[in-house]
Automatic annotation (TrEMBL), chains A, B:
<dbReference type="GO" id="GO:0004760">
    <property type="term" value="F:L-serine-pyruvate transaminase activity"/>
</dbReference>
<dbReference type="InterPro" id="IPR000192">
    <property type="entry name" value="Aminotrans_V_dom"/>
</dbReference>
<protein>
    <recommendedName>
        <fullName>Aminotransferase class V domain-containing protein</fullName>
    </recommendedName>
</protein>
<dbReference type="GO" id="GO:0019265">
    <property type="term" value="P:glycine biosynthetic process, by transamination of glyoxylate"/>
</dbReference>
<dbReference type="InterPro" id="IPR015424">
    <property type="entry name" value="PyrdxlP-dep_Trfase"/>
</dbReference>
<dbReference type="InterPro" id="IPR015422">
    <property type="entry name" value="PyrdxlP-dep_Trfase_small"/>
</dbReference>
<dbReference type="Pfam" id="PF00266">
    <property type="entry name" value="Aminotran_5"/>
</dbReference>
<keyword id="KW-0663">Pyridoxal phosphate</keyword>
<dbReference type="InterPro" id="IPR015421">
    <property type="entry name" value="PyrdxlP-dep_Trfase_major"/>
</dbReference>
<dbReference type="GO" id="GO:0008453">
    <property type="term" value="F:alanine-glyoxylate transaminase activity"/>
</dbReference>
<feature type="domain" description="Aminotransferase class V">
    <location>
        <begin position="8"/>
        <end position="139"/>
    </location>
</feature>
<dbReference type="GO" id="GO:0005777">
    <property type="term" value="C:peroxisome"/>
</dbReference>
Length: 304, 304
């Protein structure tokens, strides 16, 4: 657990001693944020970018938060001015944004958002579950709001902080971690630390751009039109017209052992979501994938 | 996921189609029960048997339940009459018991408890995290209470049931499971199914009794005095007088690669908690452990 804390601080670029893993999914991570930092009735702005933001809206209702929901066209991101207008209008205690939104493949620009929130005494919560280590992210927390009502037991960060040895108190047990999950997390973090964030970001950027260029060459289109709104980890790719998405993905899986997830929510039936992250962000993987996509296009009767 | 459901139904001896795994710890499982079946103000009886029950009392407070807490001497379990008196007095909506309580090593007898609860229109919730497959347990649920207030997102069993394909609805995503955790759960369940519950229960019983007999021969004592209150998975063993628990456990770990957890909560400093479960419930493991304990006793100046 102690290694994991050190590795996490590097990956999140933070000096905050309270940097821990909660044993849960990304959604559970978001629910941990809401239930540890906000009381029922507190004011939240959710800048929805796709399915993940919608799930946070769902959570916010369950926890009786007073929520202002921002929604935009798919493939679009929010400007600093739009976010600032929303939090001042709503007098928000917290702004929630998704950094890399894998529904369509957008990257919410965070430049200046932290300082802007700080100015308005508003917490900034960021879901970076798919963008961490593929696109730059710099975290540092200024303070933690007092919370009056109890959190659910499992997600209680105060207790978790004691268990993870982030406080002056003696470590006491909170819940049992899965040893194989913890080992997997540790190893993944160790690999990021070994490669270095600058190298990783550059590698992901280079290979994402290579992929987008080659997609263009074979006549396929990215779901997110503006390059500056795309992120390096997951690219939404439009389904070729007249082709059934599931049949197309099935072809790639059975003939090429390439497993691509279909769109979901607003991208259902419109885009497939191609993840080129971690070990998959390599030029030879891009080449292999492009060959497979070309063969798929031919197979389903498209001319190249 | 489909295999896991079938295996789970066998292990829990239930025909209930809604038999799923939640990706969480045992504590998280208990919180899932409370938050899915009870509303704030609902009446709960917790029959505490050690640390795990106390944690449920903590959860119940966080979720504003009206809780009656039963506590007994360590090593003791509850009679059917005591449980019935409590739920009728409290007009309880739910009774919570821990089956195998690893704090001291007790097994709560469940014979007749289900029928008794049913008679009083009270749900029975059982934590069997350490006793499942080592001691007999027969589950079948008669009905599910209506719940008015929303559950936390992550623990929402209704949504999970859809994701696990337990309903007529099309499967929709709820949260991402860890693939290695799911694979580990599937493999563990497959091993239980392959061996068979009757064989497993008998094996655990035989090896637990062998261990207790040999403990007696080397002059060590079980923490739970009455044999009928002990369970087959975890045995609390009293620390030899005048010996520091942590030093004793460190000796076993470094010289014999045997990792025994110390007591916690009410057994802290009083008993070590020896788990002989699954692959460790074998006569040769018992023999090896007894030799190590004997050497430990000698090392710390005890006469055998």
């Amino acid at each position: 657990m102690d290694d994991v804390k050190v590795f996490l601080r590097y990956v999140f670029q933070t000096k905050n001693n309270l940097t821990i893993a909660v044993q849960t999914s990304g959604n559970g991570g978001n629910e941990t944020i809401l239930t540890n930092l906000l009381d029922p009735g507190d004011k939240l702005v959710v800048a929805v970018g796709g399915t993940w933001g919608e799930k946070v809206v769902d959570m916010a209702e369950r926890h009786n938060l007073d929520t202002l929901v921002l929604r935009k066209g798919l493939g679009e991101i929010y400007t600093l001015e739009e976010l600032e207008a929303a939090i001042t209008q709503h007098k928000a205690n917290m702004l929630f944004v998704t950094h890399g939104e894998s529904t369509g493949g957008t990257l919410q620009v965070l430049e200046g958002v932290g300082d802007m929130c700080h100015k308005h005494n508003c917490l900034l919560a960021v879901d970076a579950i798919v963008s961490i280590a593929s696109d730059p992210l710099f975290v540092d927390r200024k303070r933690m709001l007092g919370k009056k009502t109890p959190t659910p037991y499992y997600f209680d960060v105060k207790r978790l902080a004691v268990y993870w040895g982030c406080t002056e108190e003696n470590r006491t047990f909170h819940y049992t971690f899965s040893s194989n999950m913890l080992a997997a997390v540790r190893e993944a973090l160790a690999q990021v630390c070994e490669e270095g964030l600058l190298t990783m970001w550059e590698r992901h950027k280079k290979n994402a751009r290579l992929f987008w260029k080659k997609l263009d060459e074979i006549g396929m289109e990215c779901f997110v039109e503006k390059i500056e709104n795309r992120f390096n980890g997951v690219t939404g790719v439009k389904i070729p017209k007249g082709t059934d998405q599931m049949e197309f993905l099935h072809f790639l899986k059975t003939k090429y052992a390439i497993d691509i997830t279909p769109g979901h929510g607003p991208t259902l039936g419109k885009a497939m979501r191609v993840g080129l992250m971690g070990q998959n962000s390599r030029p030879e993987v891009v080449e292999y994938l492009i060959e497979a996509l070309k063969d798929g296009l031919k197979h389903f009767g498209h001319t190249l």
